[in-house]
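Hi support team,

I've been running sequence recovery on a batch of backbones for a student project. Most finish fine, but this one hangs at about 90% for roughly twenty minutes before it completes. I'm not sure whether the input is malformed or the queue is just slow. I've pasted the structure tokens below so you can try to reproduce it. Let me know if you need the job ID as well.

Thanks,
M.K.
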């Protein structure tokens, strides 16, 4: 059984572990999800497993067929690009709303998350890299004071992360590394408009790269 930190409830523990395995690619798209096998592997009853699967279905990470069989969601070109578009709209709105509220403490946190992001990629720890990369934007979005928006962003990020988390060598990562560096440089120079333009450009570049690299479009 894989080791994992147990959150307040068994359901949350199973959600966290399954989500991590799906995002990291340990459970590839199309993998059949069986309640009994997961319950035995995690040492829990069937009930929290079923509740966790229902939650991950809402997040779009698990598909539940009419016959009730469950599989890890397959990424198609259409849903991948649509998810990127939605993430761009939500994240850029939060970024724009939060920029003027950033303090030096916020910027230092962003610098630290960027260092963790790069280190995670270099060490091949895709889960850590993904979390740090998402937190980079979360700092700004939460500075807007709109926690409901952050909740929506979190849901979309959970579904799109599998596109990013291919391998440490993927060209997709470099778009975010360079983009974050550019955003930080602009913010540190007091150029909030430039920071927003650079942040938006990350998503445009990422979408184009996903379309060509993963789908040959």
């Amino acid at each position: 059984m894989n080791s994992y930190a147990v959150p307040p409830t068994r359901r949350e523990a199973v959600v966290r572990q399954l989500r991590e395995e799906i995002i990291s690619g340990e459970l590839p798209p199309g993998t059949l999800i069986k309640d009994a096998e997961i319950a035995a592997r995690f040492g829990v009853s069937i009930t929290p497993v079923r509740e966790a699967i229902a939650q991950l279905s809402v997040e779009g990470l698990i598909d539940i067929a009419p016959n009730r069989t469950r599989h890890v969601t397959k990424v198609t070109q259409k849903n991948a690009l649509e998810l990127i578009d939605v993430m761009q709209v939500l994240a850029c709105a939060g970024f724009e709303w939060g920029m003027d509220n950033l303090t030096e403490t916020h910027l230092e946190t962003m610098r630290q998350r960027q260092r963790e992001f790069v280190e995670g990629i270099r060490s091949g720890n895709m889960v850590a890299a993904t979390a740090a990369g998402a937190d980079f934007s979360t700092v700004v979005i939460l500075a807007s004071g709109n926690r409901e928006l952050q909740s929506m962003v979190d849901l979309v990020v959970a579904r799109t992360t599998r596109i990013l988390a291919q391998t440490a060598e993927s060209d997709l990562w470099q778009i975010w590394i360079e983009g974050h560096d550019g955003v930080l440089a602009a913010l540190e120079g007091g150029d909030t408009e430039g920071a927003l333009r650079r942040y938006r450009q990350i998503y445009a570049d990422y979408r184009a790269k996903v379309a060509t690299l993963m789908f040959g479009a």
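--
Follow-up from support: It reproduced on our side and the slowdown came from queue contention, not your input. The first helix runs from residue 10 to 24. No action needed from you.
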